[in-house]
Amino acid sequence: MKPAKEMTLAGRALCQAAVGTSAAAVVLALLSMGAASARQKTGGGSSSSPRLTQDLTGSVPTHEGERVRLSTELGSVLIQTQDADRVDYRIHLESDASEKDARQLLKSFTVSVNPTRDGVALEAEAPARHWTGRFWATLELSIPKNVSLDVSTGGGNIDTQAIQGHVTLSTAGGNITAGDIGGPARLKTGGGNIVARSVAGELYASTGGGHIVIGSVAGNATLHTSGGHIRVASIQGTARLETGGGNITLGHSGAELVASTDGGEIRVGEAAGLVRAKTGGGGISVVRMVGPTDLETGGGSIYLTQVDSPVKASTSSGGITAWFVAPPKPSGTCDLQSSDGDIVVHLPRQLPVTIDAQVENGDKHRVIVDPAFPLKVSYNDSSRAHAVRAEGALNGGGELLRLRTVAGNIRFVLSDRDKQLELYKQQMAELERQTQELEKQLMEQGLPLHAP
């Protein structure tokens, strides 16, 4: 169990919460809370100061497919599952015994349980008075696996086990950790990390500055962080990934992918659909692509291991390396452009393709062609930089491969299939290693992924 989150109440001590029940159980639950006791604790805890504590407990019935709601403005939330058609809850409260209002604060904390149209709701509240001092709250629930869950807290962590229904988790500033989610999920925190093992439906996850680590998503996914990293093993639906400055890593993309970062790297393993990736200052790598691809970086290199579709790639100050496969499946132009870097393309001997390559600064840079490719190289002496150009139709010609660099070399290399396969395996293994490394770091911070 995680320790309660410490709260400093500068103006007032206000705690609310919401979870659910049935009408007959409401009165019983409230009566049982009246027996909760306040006692002084003289040792243990995270502070050497003595504390007053109080536990509010109760149990309310629920049914398969219903929704359990819990909301609180203060406190961490721990959700466990059980094989019973009821919700068991325990709210653990602590206050600093040295404060004159500490005992009254604990006594004033009340809990109400109310039925809703689709389930049960629990709400805890303290009167809106001007309290001072320190206050700790932890809310623990045991719920059935086959219900939907809606949790909101204004300042603590949320930790849930596997839930089969819809899940909505929201905290103003803590971490969110979830196990397997059997339906759509919405996870939002104002500044903590978000970790989830798997989501069987659509996923929306947003954090004001933490990392996002997700195992797999069966549906569409929208993931946003203002400054952390995004690591996902697999997204089967449409993926929209955005970070204000971290790295983005996605092992498998099953449909359209849109990824953007203001200054980090973007790494994609296998992409089955359209890919749009943009970074303001990092590198981009895609191991395998079979759909149209548009890549742009303001200051990094681009590396493509298995190009099997039309691709547009541009970089302002890095190089571009692309390994093509033969024959490419979808038709379309490939356009690779670099302002200040080399472009290296690895072509299979039997690939039917039409080449149009140009180096604008031909005085200092050149086009280097493997003897296996009969390309015509020409020089434009009328331009100030004496541009150099290579053209030709290989194996009868095919889709256009257009290459442009201002201050770099262009190289055409005969592809080595064995080396290409080796690179593919190495890069997929590296993606897996990166994901595991970040998971390890989060576990060291007390954010383990739940066992299946």
The overall strand count is: 37
The SS-based structural class is: mainly beta
Measured by DSSP, the beta-strand proportion falls in over 45%
Tally the structural domains: 2
> Based on the structure, what is the oligomeric state of the protein chains?
single chain
**Largest sheet properties:** 19 strands, mixed
How confident is the prediction overall: mean pLDDT?
83
Report the end-to-end length measured between terminal Cα atoms.
18 Å
The helix tally amounts to: 3
Q: What does the radius of gyration come to?
A: 29 Å
State the low-pLDDT regions, or none.
1-47
Helical fraction: 10-25%
Shape: elongated
Please tell me about this protein's structure.
The protein folds into two domains: 1-156, no CATH class; 238-430, no CATH class. It is built from three helices and 37 strands. It has helices spanning 23-33, 102-108, 417-444, and strands spanning 5-8, 38-41, 51-61, 67-72, 76-82, 86-96, 110-115, 119-125, 134-144, 148-153, 158-160, 167-171, 176-181, 185-189, 194-199, 203-207, 212-217, 221-225, 230-235, 239-243, 248-253, 257-261, 266-271, 275-279, 284-289, 293-297, 302-307, 311-315, 320-324, 334-338, 343-347, 353-359, 367-369, 376-380, 387-394, 399-405, 410-414. The chain has a 19-stranded mixed beta sheet that branches. Strand 7 (110-115) and strand 8 (119-125) form a beta hairpin. The chain starts with a strand and ends in an 8-residue tail after the last helix. The relative contact order is 0.09. The model is unreliable at 1-47 (pLDDT under 50).
